[in-house]
TrEMBL record:
Record-linked Pfam families: HATPase_c, HisKA, PAS_3, PAS_4, PAS_9
Residue ranges of domain PAS in the record: 151-221, 285-341
EC number: 2.7.13.3
Residues in coiled coil: 5-32
Gene3D superfamilies, per the entry: 1.10.287.130, 2.10.70.100, Histidine kinase-like ATPase, C-terminal domain, PAS domain
Name of this chain's protein: histidine kinase
InterPro entries per record: HATPase_C_sf, HATPase_dom, His_kinase_dom, HisK_dim/P_dom, HisK_dim/P_sf, PAC, PAS, PAS-assoc_C
Amino acid sequence: MTGNYKSADEELLALREELQRVKQQTSSALEAVGIGLWTMIPQQNRILWDEQCQKIYGWPKKSIPFDEFLSRIHPQDIDNLRAALTNPPSQQTGKPTTIDYRITSPIDDTIRWIRITGRVTKQSSGAADYFSGTAQNITEEKRKEATLKTVEKRFQMAFTHASVGVVILDTQSNIQLINKAFADLVGYSQEELIDKHFESITHPDDMEENVFLIQQLLRGETNSYVFNKRYVRKDGRLVWGQVSSALIRDGEGRPDSFISIVQDITAELQAQSEQKKLLSLLGASEERLREAIELAELGTFDVNIAEETIQLSERAKGWLGFTPDEIPDVAQLFNVIRDRDVLETALYETINKGVDATLDIEYWALNRQTGQERLYHAQGRIIKRSPEDTTFSLRGIAKDITAQKQYAQALEQQVQWRTQALQQANSLVELQTDQLRFVTDSALTAIALYSIIRNEATGDVIDLRYELINQMALRMTGLQVTDLIGHTMLEVFPAIKNSSVWRRYLELAQTGVPLRYHNHYTQDGYDIWYQVQGVRQGELLVLSFLDITELKQTQLKLEALNKNLIEANDNLQQFAFVASHDLQEPLRKIQSFGTLLQEQYADRLGEGATLIQRMQLAAERMSILIKDLLTFSRITANSQITTDVPLDRVIERVIDDLDVAIQEANANLQIKSLPSVKGDESQLRQLFQNLLSNALKFRQPKNELHICISARLVAESDLPASVKPTRQTANYHLICVEDNGIGFDEKYVDRIFQVFQRLHGKSQYAGTGIGLAIVQRVAANHGGVITATSRLGEGSTFQVYLPAGS
């Protein structure tokens, strides 16, 4: 008996230990996932919970009164929680009750979101014994949920009120959702655009590229694209939009929709166009200014006042003995000035006066290299370095006036010394004047100086008066000096008033904008062409006239000859077309009659049937020859070829056309990545079709045919000496068509590109001998060239050079 009792006790002890182990494992598992256990005892009005619950709630007690617990519940959650705890739904349904609520921790006063799940345990009498369950801190989950709602709300507001257009399309490019900014951009209401295909509002010229970019997205070749395109508004006007598009995929990676951001760039493009015009005008003005400074033999300087450095032009550096690479500072400049104190004082006085203050001074300076002293005259102004900059510069020009000063000093001495010296000086001036007059009169350009005559009441220009005129101008007019000087232009040439030339002169006199144009004058008995240039200085005009009659007549003759050449070429093409048509007609009759003879009189022809068959084959060869000649004659040079042609697409279509021949030859084609070129797609297709046809035709029957088409970029400087493209450019695309066919002897490389030239008999390989001549003409027409390399029995490589870029 004793032994049996011990066995039962041991078994009970083992069960208790197992129960404790399970409790510990359960507690560890719940702690690992952040879940605590709680029990509410209605009879005691208390809540009990484990250590994990204490961490979850931030509560130091293991047992708390129910009322104290409720005092920490958020006011917005207390009613729902009280009802759920005092009368849990699980009491009637038997299913667990779950509720989320906020509570303030008594330890750190932080608000935490708690999710409890509990069930009522009933006594045998049916009354509730206790309500127990689990608790979990869901504060972070609620925070993320609130953040997500905020993000969604902000996205909706951004979509609706965005200043740029936003469009969402399905994978078939039908519009599913747009914002008001996009609807306003294209002039439709939002409702009018829903379910419309984007093609209905896209300019036709932009459709092909747009569809190509969309297909790239769908194929996964790119994640997004940016594209400038034109939209057709509801009122018919065009607007430019910069479209940024991306593909949205579903959870399994399949295309779901497109989202596009559209920015109105119409005004930006117009502004860029205007900016280019202004920059062009500015560049021309700066160039004229540089030319004027160079002609006037001026030096320029720019003193950075803040950094005390100075930038000098090359001429100014040469005056002072600095090398072109040196950048002297102000101190180095002062070291070569004889009147340093005077210049330094004048410089700093000007700087202290601020913006728009001017400097005007003469000074002697020493050349550091030669030791020679010369006199200079400098003029400058204080300016801002840029509109936004707060620093200043002193910028100006300087001129070597040594000769002028020496001349003035010598002249003064001569005046003081004797009258004879003055007379000699006057004679020298007169001589220089005569020399200047001689130079002017010897010029091949007619030059005339006019004074402007204005209406005294309105100030409008009404005429021009001759003041000076050179001999070439007199010869051009056929008049004497007395007929011109002192007279007005309308007095001498009254018919000019009704010409556009006169309006140009008036505009020059009124605005001062320099004038340059060509004119054909046929009034007052003249028939001359001349180039006119004009400038205004104050109330004076200088007009120069260069007689280009002979040059213009030559040009007109050349234009007439060119026109005749074009007409002759057109007539030749027309002749080729008509001739080919007229030649095809009798050939068709020969073939037709031959077919009738074969079909209806075959039993009577005897050996004549063979002759008729040979006649039919000859007629067929002649028909092919006529067609090839017509194709060859139609390929003419076209300098206006500007279309981008993807060669990948051209080769793909050629392969489709030659599919049957490729299969019959059991050819293995390797097509590498090819570029796009400027050209005529139909001509380029003819070029590569002829090259591939040749490779398929001239194959070795016993060997598997391999054809490889590849491309690479070649600089002009790296072109072989024998390669002479018809248009020069920096780089060329080299497209190679390589095969392992029968090949040919390279000594015939020039011959194979000539019309009717064949290296094999007609019985071996069919053809007219025109195919490669067509290839050569297409390459030349596109500014390129074709050549070939080969070895008998090993194959050939045809190399096509086409210009790269615009």
